[in-house]
Specification:
Helix content: 40-55%
CATH superfamily of one domain: Bira Bifunctional Protein, Domain 2
Bound molecules: glycyl-adenosine-5'-phosphate
CATH class of one domain: Alpha Beta
Number of strands: 23
Distance between the termini: 38 Å
Structural class: alpha+beta
Shape: globular
């Protein structure tokens, strides 16, 4: 675990050093849980968004996109339930004056018990070697049996308190389990209170009578309130989907793990409108399809798992998360939710406008049901970054840091390098750049030794390096070096485009989804 934390720290440092992610407002000491994307980060992020957008809208002829405004009529958030119920349970420590999410304090406490269990298991595994039977050990070792019993008891109390919205129950767990503030080390806790996560601001001048508006906490409501517009103007027939990528804002209290939980982040959401009664079939479809989209990137099938929700929101009749193995454990990257007709019905009620679909096949009108797929761009970025990072020992005692980014997502697709800065090699290299740049993000690099230049490109995940040497001037061939294998082949300049395109294009990646 500690080793994984070290790796994570290195990934965060690497992201900054190589222009992927910077803390926001850094010269003013930063702004908590807000980040900026640098020159390489923005390219990687745009490529992730393009992969999602094209997979949704190009590969599904019944899905179209929109781009709705961040500001929306405040009644939308009343109708959606966010004004009344988009809350976190918070608790303060009177000594440190720090504020925590009560549920996170308890979850961390449960994780600590899990760590103790794992430690005992690992100790025993070492002691017993090949003959070790983990299940038997967990059932018979008294210390571990007690830990497991304790964990289950806390977990049950926790689930019950969360399901019943029982704030006092949450506080009682914190007191009974003697959970201390990590800063002050004391148990001097206040009561638990609900805290709304939406940011609000004023629109219009106060003299005119201003209105409180919210920064949207999800992009989905922009889709719901445009359902009629898109259905009518696009003459869409159910089943159909509306996709959107955009910023969302949440006043997260426990903001940590880098870009995993941010206050300003980006979502890629798609609402798929279906006939009532058809929703479970479509829920199964999207659950399978979205995982296929993730796995096509080749980050490792074993790094994904579903987490089906036991506790459902009042409007949902099925929900699952796609979790990814981050260095700090399996974490939610995407949610797939069957939201019934809740949102459209609520907007019909609050707006007073009829939001119905006339189904010509059934010759009947109804409020469509909705399957939602909702993925955070930043979390996707983090999963790609973490699983791509490797510190690699090389032959001869050398080492390199390499990002094994999926080629279609890599910020730079190829770097062209003259072996030396003379004899016409830079000019020849520039000619190649000028040809390739129309189709691929291509860099020209002539500084430092060729070895150093390769390392620089490895560190930002560039799939191909093209080296121009004296032989190039004689026979029009260059060396093409592949990032992961470091293998170098001699190829004709005329063949470069096809060779690179085949490996790095989004087209090739999308074809895997057929
Ligand atoms: N419309 C449904 C919805 O917003 P959600 O589970 O609250 O559902 C969907 O959010 C996705 O948005 C999450 O799976 C996660 O990837 C991303 N997300 C949510 N809160 C986030 C935050 N504070 N920072 C970064 N990403 C976040």
């Amino acid at each position: 675990m500690a080793q994984q934390e070290d790796v994570f720290k290195k990934i965060v440092a690497h992201a900054k050093e190589y222009g992927f992610v910077f803390p926001s407002s850094e010269i003013y000491d930063g702004l908590s849980a807000v980040y900026d994307y640098g020159q390489n980060g923005v390219e990687l992020k745009n490529n992730i968004k393009r992969y999602w957008w094209e997979a949704m809208t190009l590969l599904h002829e019944n899905i179209v996109g929109i781009d709705s405004a961040i500001f929306m009529h405040p009644t939308i958030w009343k109708a959606s339930g966010h004004v009344d119920a988009f809350n976190d349970p918070l608790i303060d420590n009177r000594d440190s004056k720090k504020r925590y999410r009560a549920d996170v304090l308890i979850e961390d406490h449960i994780a600590k018990i899990d760590e103790k269990i794992d430690k005992e298991v690992e100790k025993a595994r070492k002691r017993f070697g090949d003959s070790f039977d983990e299940e038997m050990f967990k059932q018979t070792n008294q210390r571990v049996v007690d830990y497991i019993k304790h964990r289950e008891a806390v977990h049950t109390r926790f689930s019950e308190a969360m399901n019943a919205n029982d704030l006092e129950g949450l506080r009682n767990i914190i007191i009974d389990e003697e959970i201390v503030d990590p800063i002050s080390g004391t148990r001097n806790w206040t009561d638990v209170r609900q805290f709304n996560l939406m940011f609000s601001t004023e629109m219009g001048s106060t003299a005119d009578g201003s209105m409180t508006v919210y920064l949207r906490p999800e992009t989905a409501q922009g889709i719901f309130v445009n359902y009629l517009n898109v259905q009518k103007t696009g003459r869409m027939r159910i089943p159909f989907g509306i996709a959107q990528i955009g910023k969302a804002f949440r006043n997260e209290i426990v903001a940590r793990q880098f870009i995993f939980r941010m206050r300003e982040f980006e979502q890629m959401e798609m609402q798929f409108f279906v006939r009532p009664g058809d929703e479970m079939r479509w829920f199964a479809y999207w659950k399978e399809w979205r995982l296929r989209w993730h796995k096509a990137l080749g980050l490792g099938d074993e790094k994904y798992r579903y987490h089906d929700h036991e506790k459902l929101a009042h409007y949902a009749n099925a929900a699952t998360d796609i979790e990814f193995q981050m260095p700090f454990g399996f974490k939610e990257v995407e949610g797939i939710h069957s939201r019934t007709d809740f949102d459209l019905s609520q907007h019909e009620k609050y707006s007073g406008k009829k939001i119905q679909y006339f189904d010509p096949e059934l010759n009947a009108s109804y409020t469509p049901y909705v399957i939602e797929t909702s993925i955070g761009v930043d979390r996707m970025f983090l999963s790609v970054l973490c699983s791509s990072y490797e510190e690699q020992a090389l032959e001869g005692g050398d080492s390199r840091v390499v990002l094994h980014l999926p080629a279609a997502l890599a910020p730079t697709k190829c770097a062209v390098m003259p072996l030396v800065r003379k004899d016409g090699l830079p000019e020849k290299a520039r000619e190649i750049v000028d040809e390739l740049k129309f189709d691929f993000t291509t860099h020209y690099d002539e500084k430092d030794s060729i070895g150093k230049r390769y390392r620089r490109q490895d560190a930002v995940g560039t799939p191909y390096c093209i080296t121009v040497d004296h032989q190039t001037l004689e026979d029009n061939t260059v060396t093409l070096r592949e990032r992961d294998s470091m293998e170098q082949i001699r190829v004709n300049i005329n063949d470069l485009h096809a060779l690179i395109h085949d490996k790095v294009s989004l087209n090739s990646l999308l074809r895997k989804l057929k």
